[in-house]
Design a protein that fits this description.
membrane; 7 strands
Length: about 800
């Protein structure tokens, strides 16, 4: 127990013990978690709640006193991330979620505050460009392709009769058929999209993220801790989200205003145009520039303190900025709708400059972000991982675990005596300064993920524009189509996919060789002679060989990001150099080059449309089918675990509800009973358990034992989010809680060892569990034992042993001395 632990408010109940179970990705029911069909919700609501068995509702306060076994409780949070099929629409916000993910991927650097702030600023600016890109794509579809080109072309308007009132030819010069008024009507679509994003962000925050965390004493800002997750205000970002929501909403409305107003202003600047309207056009441009500067200023100012629970809200900014831009948009539509005799729609709206500027700005932002991340990683690598000054305590001291199990944890796997497993801790991992090799992409994970976010935004916007253009135009060529840059970006998609296919083929070949090598290890681990059952051996070997593919994710992300960045730069250069589509740009050259360019353009366009439809369909299925939800669940749950710090329109953060729930439950129970508490987390539940433990007061944290199994806390979070789940943070957590044990399997593609440096490692990771428990039929397992992988850790006898070990260490506090007692 750490120093300064306080006595509970009530007399301790000797023997009182609580096991708080937290499930992982995919969710489950309280009946399955507790192993009892009769369960009772003791606290919470339909979204997230704590359940107990019906017989254990008053286990601590009943007439029989505390039971001689731990009372299990199940915290069920699956409704925070899954529900009805309409939530599949959240997948349309994937680029926003990905760029928000990049914000938390910065390398650790406590002493370089300015670089850390610059990193966050660049990610927020990248997120702002994504909002502008999405709204600009909506403007391209509604204003340019539909209202300007299709409604202005007789052949296209005749095929789509619902555009008749906007068509000069079909309405015979009706009032709404003037170019500026057509644009004003079409502006309702991107404006409604912007308002919808604002509404969803506001509504989801109130539903999921408005729960206040446990009140704690503020931290001193000059005293940084091992992780920001321990700060009192980390899981309450109301002020920051509100500021960013106002800024991004204003940016979307300004984008619509610019799309409507610039076309009218360009007409007024022609020789012989009305001087008054020309002056109004310049005033409009000045107002748009001023509004854009105000939005960028709000985004650049973070405006949040995590060292305390920040309940403040910049009400004047949150209300006035969107309302001001909405008024400006209204004035712009009035200005554009003013009668201008002789103004006719021709060609297409000036969208090439807009999309080209956005793509160039995103590329420069990502490159600057990469430079900052490299500097932060270099500083962290030069400082090295400081040796942990832990107490060196072992969870076996005073425990009930088997000595041979603990000896195996120190020696390595049972299969490879005297060595550590390939996927487990190694001697080099424990040396100070060597943990930097565990950081994904050498600290460039954030810039790589930000690149993918920008690429996703470009693909989605270009795909929608291209599909709508094809639908409006049909088989004819009466429309000019979307801007050339969007077509060039579609042309490079087949090349990116080709690079990925080559990489996947190489990884598959390496996995096949690894599976062949694992056959001998499987036979040695289970003591199989004469070859055993080839089918059984091959199944186990393939599971062991495929599990480490998760560790190849940085390679996949890095190659995708680099190829996307280079080919995207080529698309920008091609569009700027030719101003035409790739097929037309190669006219007059060799027929093979011309045919290849046309094929790449057509194939890329169809791949974008097909991918978009599959994306929405798969997302809807994921919310109805549990197996599909588990397939993509881990990536989605990692993305929505983090608060919305870079983009307010990202899907809601479920941890801002789940972590306060767990923290309140643990703190109140330990303070009222003084009993023993073990929080047991599987998969993503182990990450929630660790985050909740960091939020406890030191005296409460010292009363908690942590049991994790199938945990990605180091394998995914430690590598991709080193500033928050790095070795220093995990070592500090291990020292603060009473004890921590971790279980994993070599066949688990998600969970893995914690790999703490120094003396902390052997006290946390147990030797890898056997999977399956038996190779063939035995008296204890007369039927073939299943291969479990990432699931059902509680079926292994090691789980009960480790739980008993933790409860054996967590002794109840002594009863407080009565006043006047000697």
């Amino acid at each position: 127990m750490s120093d300064g632990a306080a006595r509970p408010a009530r007399p301790a109940r000797p023997g009182a013990a609580l096991e708080l179970l937290v499930h992982g990705v995919g969710g489950t029911t309280p009946e399955q978690m507790l192993g009892d069909p009769r369960t009772v919700r003791i606290t919470g609501d339909d979204t997230a709640a704590v359940h107990r068995r019906a017989d254990d509702v008053d286990a601590e306060t009943g007439p029989g006193g505390a039971p001689d076994r731990p009372v299990p409780e199940a915290y069920v949070w699956c409704n925070l991330t899954s529900g009805n099929g309409s939530r599949a629409l959240w997948l349309l916000l994937l680029p926003f979620m990905v760029v928000n993910l990049a914000h938390w991927m910065r390398p650790p650097a406590r002493e370089h505050t300015r670089l850390v702030r610059l990193y966050g600023l660049l990610v927020r600016l990248a997120g702002l460009t994504l909002t502008v890109l999405l709204v600009a794509a909506a403007c391209e579809v509604a204003l340019d392709l539909t209202a300007w080109q299709c409604a202005g072309t007789r052949a296209c308007a005749e095929r789509h009769t619902w555009l008749g009132f906007l068509s000069p030819a079909l309405s015979h010069g009706g009032w709404w058929s003037r170019p500026g008024r057509r644009l004003a009507v079409a502006a309702l679509v991107p404006t409604a999209l912007t308002v919808l994003l604002w509404y969803l962000s506001h509504r989801t925050w109130r539903a999921y993220e408005s729960r206040e965390p446990l009140t704690r004493a503020p931290e001193a800002e000059h005293r940084p801790g091992p992780t920001t997750l321990s700060r009192p205000g980390f899981w309450y970002g109301r002020r920051l989200v509100a500021r960013l929501r106002a800024a991004h909403t204003a940016a979307g409305l300004l984008t619509v205003a610019a799309a409507v107003g610039t076309a009218a202003a360009r007409e007024d600047r022609r020789p012989g145009g009305p001087a008054l309207l020309d002056a109004l056009g310049w005033c409009l441009v000045a107002a748009l520039v001023g509004g854009a500067a105000a939005v960028v200023g709000v985004v650049c100012r973070r405006g949040r303190s995590e060292h305390r629970l920040d309940r403040a809200l910049d009400a004047h900014l949150v209300r006035r900025l969107p309302l001001t831009t909405l008024v400006l948009l209204g004035l712009t539509t009035v200005y554009a709708g003013w009668s201008r005799p002789g103004w006719h729609a021709a060609d297409r709206l000036p969208g090439d400059t807009t999309f080209g500027t956005l793509a160039l700005g995103q590329g420069l932002t990502v490159l600057a972000l990469a430079v900052v991340a490299a500097l932060l990683h270099r500083a962290a690598a030069g400082r090295g991982a400081a040796p942990q000054q832990g107490s060196g305590r072992d969870c076996c001291e005073g425990g009930t675990g088997r000595p041979e199990a603990e000896a195996g944890a120190r020696a390595g796997t049972p299969e490879r005596a005297g060595t550590m497993p390939e996927d487990g801790p190694t001697a080099s991992d424990d040396e100070p300064g060597t943990t930097r090799s565990r950081v994904a992409l050498y600290g460039l994970g954030g810039p790589a993920v930000a690149t993918l976010a920008c690429a996703l935004g470009a693909v989605m916007s270009g795909g929608v524009a291209q599909r709508v253009a094809d639908w409006l135009d049909g088989t004819q060529s009466s429309l000019d189509g979307p801007p050339a840059l969007l077509t060039w970006q579609a042309s490079v998609i087949p090349l990116v996919l080709l690079v990925l296919l080559v990489l996947v083929a190489l990884l598959g070949r390496a996995t096949w060789h690894r599976a062949r090598a694992e056959r001998a290890e499987v036979r040695r681990a289970y003591g199989v002679a004469d070859g055993g059952d080839p089918g059984r051996t091959g199944t186990i070997a393939r599971a062991r060989a495929m599990a480490p593919l998760t560790d190849r994710a940085p390679l996949l992300v890095g190659v995708t990001a680099i190829s996307t960045l280079l080919l995207g730069a080529g698309a920008i250069a091609g569009a700027l150099a030719t101003g035409r589509t790739p097929g037309r740009a190669t006219e007059g050259t060799y027929p093979f080059v011309h045919g290849a360019a046309q094929t790449a353009q057509a194939l890329g366009s169809w791949l974008i449309g097909l991918g978009f439809l599959l994306f929405v369909t798969w997302g809807r299925r994921a919310y109805k089918d549990p197996s599909a939800r588990r397939t993509i669940g881990i990536l989605w749950d990692v993305g929505t675990f983090w608060p919305r710090a870079a983009h307010p329109f990202a899907p809601p953060c479920y941890a801002e509800r789940a972590v306060p729930d767990l923290t309140w439950r643990m703190a109140t129970w330990t303070r009222e009973t003084g009993g023993r508490l073990v929080i047991s987390g599987h998969s993503q539940g182990s990450v929630l358990a660790a985050a909740a433990a960091w939020q406890l007061e030191p005296r409460d944290r010292a009363r908690v034992g942590l049991l994790t199994y199938g945990s990605p806390i180091e394998r995914l979070y430690g590598r991709w989010f080193p500033a928050h789940f790095g070795p220093d943070a995990l070592s500090a957590l291990h020292q603060d809680v009473d004890c921590w044990r971790n279980l994993y399997r070599l066949t688990d593609p998600i969970g893995g060892p914690v790999r703490l440096p120094g003396s902390c490692g052997p006290a946390v990771d147990r030797a890898p569990l056997k999977d399956p428990l038996e190779y063939g039929r035995t008296a204890r397992h007369p039927l073939p034992a299943p291969l479990l992988g990432h699931s059902d850790y509680q079926a292994d006898p090691a789980f009960a042993e480790e739980r008993a070990l933790l409860l054996g260490r967590l002794l109840p506090l002594p009863e407080p001395r009565q006043p006047g007692a000697s």
